[in-house]
Design brief:
The complex is a heterodimer. Chain A is an alpha/beta fold. Chain A contains 4 helices and 7 strands, in the order αββαββββαβα. Chain A has 2 domains: about 120 residues, NADH:ubiquinone oxidoreductase Nqo5 subunit (Beta Polymerase, domain 2, 2-Layer Sandwich); about 30 residues, no CATH class. Chain A is globular. The termini of chain A are far apart. A 3-stranded antiparallel β-sheet of chain B has the order 3-4-5, with no helix packed on it. Chain B has a 3-stranded antiparallel β-sheet with strand order 8-9-10. Chain B has a two-stranded antiparallel ribbon with strand order 1-2. In chain B, helix 7 packs antiparallel against helix 8, helix 8 packs antiparallel against helix 13 and helix 13 packs parallel to helix 16. Classes of the chains: A alpha/beta, B alpha+beta. Chains A and B meet through strand 3, strand 4 and helix 3 of A and helix 1, helix 2, strand 8, strand 9 and strand 10 of B.
């Protein structure tokens, strides 16, 4: 835990912070909104006192109710990892400014977050799917994307036979004949 | 568009013409309109340019990577790496199994040095629980990591030479690697995917078989590494084909999120073992070798230096190995209270990191794996244009990508 970093962030980003700064073990955590990503990241990178030159990771998160984009930064000025959480993105249309203007290597990480969560990074010139095929339509790491063998989440269900795995568990419980068109079965992709 | 409808695709002869022929995997031009600005720009060919598929099944791509090269004669003008051939959605799989399953699921990510990728869920869970691991277990982990690093690096040296057309060094590389892999098999029971680390320690103490193999190896490893490197260090053809090739400067490497030998070859002494210490590395004495040239040859020499540093660490670890248990006392079924944790280790390819979230259940809520080769590979887009097709191999091999981790 680095109290100096905490004070410095509180001083520099007083207007951008959405909630208190958390510190646990070797990580300092701050929360900002999508609107201040560009200025906050630029200041973190350029300010000689902060000097966060290494973007250690960029990850998308689906909490079930909203989307996050989580950045981890490293600086020689602080012994802590800095975690910047951009929270409060809507699940229907998550949009966040791209950081490729600072780290062009974030390009692929943003493509991955787009591919897996559908998060749109505005300003990324090459935002297309990176793992899944181009005609794929769903976002696999979202929490409402169920795996056919998702029995682990529902221990009461027991096992399902191989030929039943194309149906989600809810449909097995209510054997109602459905029209193929309005089936609620999520797209599970060709690579399961 | 469904599979049964006739599709219009671009002709291979002239990408501006759309034809009804069904697309095959051999089509370099995607059978769909460009999705982004950059894709439109890449697939628009000027006079004299053509597209060439390198991969997906090409030995020099070190796995199943497809790189679409835009070439003008023998020169590479631009390139577009296409990933996903090995994608199995390990992050989703981990979310649907419990924390112990995640260890063996993360194992095949970096299959050349899987002791590092299997450490991801382990270290993440330990940090989420704020768990103290017995000192002996920490020392055994460092020993296993450094042995695996040497195994991976010696294979890298052979691979680099192999991609340049030299067949001999890979044989020496495999001799070196095989000894270590057999040694680790005596310790863990597996040659490739060890599944040895556990949340709270390691699976089993050091065995007699392992120690005797390690002793044998320590006796001649130094000499053997000198022999192997002498084959390449002074080799006229090798040096002339790698020196000055694929130069990455300091600023570019940092901005492209490179790490590991690729970053250190540009002069940035960023090694997670020193930059953000974990395990017992603060107690060990070793240097972080750097080079300033940033070319393929510098990356190769850096690997050699790192092998020497790893040998130093192994010496110290064996000298200081404490007694005691190798597992912390934790319940078999772990329920981790809601928390977030970020951990990073220095793998042979760079910073292997993991961001884990727990929601209080026995399964990870989110387990994000950050693979260094994914980001190191990205730099080919910057350094490859302007080089000869034959040199793409030398550049790509010197970045040392492992597709298992890149595609996750």
């Amino acid at each position: 835990m680095d109290p100096r970093l905490r004070r410095r962030i509180e001083r520099t980003f007083a207007d951008d912070l959405r909630g208190p700064i958390n510190q646990r073990l070797d990580t300092t955590e701050m929360r900002i909104g999508a609107a201040s990503v560009t200025t906050v990241m630029r200041t973190l990178h350029d300010d000689p006192e902060l000097d966060f030159k290494v973007l250690a990771d960029l990850a998308g998160v689906d909490t079930g109710s909203e989307m996050w984009v989580v950045y981890h930064l490293w600086s020689a000025q602080s012994p802590d990892w800095l975690r910047v959480i951009v929270d409060g993105l809507s699940r229907d249309d998550p949009r966040v400014p791209s950081v490729t203007f600072l780290w062009n290597g974030a390009d692929w990480a943003e493509r991955e977050a787009y591919d897996m969560f559908g998060i749109i990074f505005e300003g990324n010139r090459d935002l297309r799917r990176i793992y899944m095929p181009p005609d794929y339509t769903s976002f696999p790491l979202r929490k409402d994307f169920l795996l056919p063998d998702d029995a682990a989440r529902s221990p009461g269900e027991g096992f399902r036979h191989m030929e039943q795995t194309h149906q989600p568990a809810e449909q097995l419980r209510q054997p109602v004949l459905r029209d193929a068109k309005d089936s609620l079965a999520p797209d599970r992709g060709p690579r399961q | 568009m469904t599979a049964t409808e006739p599709r219009t695709v671009r002709s291979l002869d002239d990408p501006d013409i759309w034809v009804d022929t069904p697309a095959t995997i051999f089509d370099a031009v995607p059978p769909y309109p460009p999705r982004t600005e950059r894709e439109a720009e890449f697939y628009h060919l000027r006079d004299g340019e053509m597209l060439l598929n390198l991969g997906p099944q090409h030995p020099s791509t070190h796995g199943v990577l497809r790189v679409v090269l835009k070439i003008d004669g023998e020169r590479v003008v631009d390139l577009d790496p296409v990933l996903g051939y090995l994608h199995r959605g390990v992050e989703k799989i981990c979310e649907n199994g419990d924390w112990h399953h995640a260890i063996s699921n993360c194992d095949p990510l970096e299959y050349v040095a899987s002791m590092f990728s299997e450490a991801m869920p382990v270290l993440a869970a330990e940090k989420l629980l704020d768990l103290k691991v017995p000192r002996r277990a920490e020392y055994i982990r460092v020993l296993a990591w450094e042995l695996n690093r040497i195994a991976s690096h010696s294979l890298f040296m052979g691979w680099l030479a192999l991609d340049l057309g030299g067949l001999t060094p890979i044989l020496y590389g495999f001799i070196e690697r095989d000894e270590i892999v057999e040694m680790l098999a005596a310790l863990t029971g597996q040659r490739l995917l060890f599944n040895y680390l556990r949340i709270g320690g390691v699976n089993g103490d050091l065995t007699h078989d392992f120690m005797s193999r390690l002793g044998d190896w320590m006796g001649h490893a130094g000499k053997q590494i000198e022999t192997t490197t002498k084959l390449l260090n002074e080799n006229e053809i090798f040096v002339r084909r790698t020196r000055g090739l694929g130069v990455i400067d300091r600023e570019t490497a940092l901005r492209t999120l490179c790490s590991g030998p690729v970053l250190r070859a540009t002069g940035v002494p960023y090694d997670v073992r020193r930059a953000h210490p974990y395990s017992v590395y603060p107690e060990l004495e070793f240097d972080v070798p750097t080079r300033t040239e940033g070319d393929s040859y510098a990356r190769y020499l850096l690997h050699v230096d790192e092998v020497r540093e790893s040998m130093r660490i192994i010496d110290q670890v064996l000298h200081d190995m404490p007694d005691g248990p190798v597992m912390a006392k934790i319940p078999r079924m772990i329920r981790i209270p809601p928390a977030r944790a970020f951990i990073a280790v220095e793998s042979p390819r760079g910073q292997y990191a993991c961001y884990a979230m727990s929601d209080g259940s026995d399964q990870p809520f989110r387990l994000r794996i950050h693979d260094p080769s994914f980001f190191n590979l990205q730099v080919v887009g910057l350094v490859m244009p302007g080089n000869l097709i034959a040199d793409t191999m030398a550049i790509m091999a010197s970045l040392d990508p492992v597709m298992g981790g890149i595609d996750k």
